[in-house]
Specification:
The chain contains eleven helices and eleven strands. It is α/β, with parallel strands linked by helices. The strands form two sheets. Strands 7-6-5-8-9-11-10 form a seven-stranded mixed sheet, sandwiched between helices. α3 runs parallel beside α4. The longest helix is centred in the first third of the chain and has 13 residues.
Length: 266
């Protein structure tokens, strides 16, 4: 599940990990009229789709995860990857959220195919229903391949050289995990796996709520180029996009190039 942002990164981390605003502000926000659209039990616990102040929100176990307000850094993450990957690129988006990142990917001329990984069936259903008018019915695009799966398990089984870009936005960064198992994505094993799955000129992008120098060091061990992009959110800390290109010693480089064509992944 993607973790979308509401307000500054600092405020977001407060909402997602127990650091709530001062009591008067907290209760003023919560007092705004909220309409629960649907409440379900998902793989991460209770999931709620609700509407407040004219926007949809998704809440897990009482904790805010994502909404239809801010979009800038989420869109930049996928467009920056699409700008740098070899066209027509095969992109993976880890975490569907409200579908804005997917819509941005589909609008990019360099994107030929998008694999969407989302472990929560309710999020997929909401994106085909109430959220579809907001993201242009992105899941209905013929270039989209949808996988109801955990990104860690899916990537571990993906064929070598089968993707040109991997865009991960499933946590608030390596220091603020939605699921403990996601730590694998930011460790050497996960980065090594991403490098293996990518084509020789492939791109990996990771969304983070703050700079993570240790992760940057690890990424340099598996990719020849690593950039850190700060995205202003108007107040508080900027959102951060980690962008890595050209996997080192990829399986594709060792075994020869793979013929272009649609990705065949279950």
């Amino acid at each position: 599940m993607i973790v979308h942002r509401q307000g500054s990164a600092a405020a977001k981390r407060g909402q997602a990990f127990g650091r709530v605003p001062p009591a008067p502000l907290y209760f003023a926000v919560m007092a705004q009229e909220t309409t629960v659209i649907e409440r379900v039990v998902g793989s991460c616990g209770e999931l709620v789709l609700q509407r407040r102040d004219g926007h949809y929100e998704i809440v897990a176990n009482g904790v805010f995860l994502m909404d239809t307000r801010g979009r800038r850094s989420e869109l930049l993450q996928v467009t920056a990857a699409a700008d740098r990957m070899p066209p027509p690129g095969r992109m993976l988006i880890g975490g569907l959220g409200v579908g804005f990142a997917l819509a941005a990917a589909l609008a990019h001329p360099g994107v030929g195919e998008v694999h969407v990984l989302e472990r929560e069936p309710a999020v997929l259903r909401w994106n085909r229903g109430r959220l579809a008018p907001l993201n242009g019915d992105a899941l209905g695009d013929g270039r989209v391949r949808t996988h109801e799966a955990d990104v860690v398990q899916w990537l571990a089984k993906a064929p070598a050289g089968s993707l040109d870009a991997i865009c991960l936005d499933v946590d608030n960064g390596p220091e603020w995990l939605v699921s403990p198992g996601n730590a694998w994505l930011y460790a050497h094993e996960g980065l090594r796996t991403a490098a293996r799955v990518l084509s020789p000129d492939g791109v990996l992008t990771i969304w983070s709520a703050a700079r993570t120098p240790a992760l940057v060091v690890r990424m340099h061990e598996h990719f020849t180029e690593v950039d850190v992009i700060d995205v202003s959110v108007g107040r508080g800390e900027p959102d951060v996009i980690l962008l890595a290109r050209v996997p080192r010693n990829s399986a594709v480089e060792r075994s020869g190039s793979i013929a272009p064509g649609p990705t065949q992944i279950d």
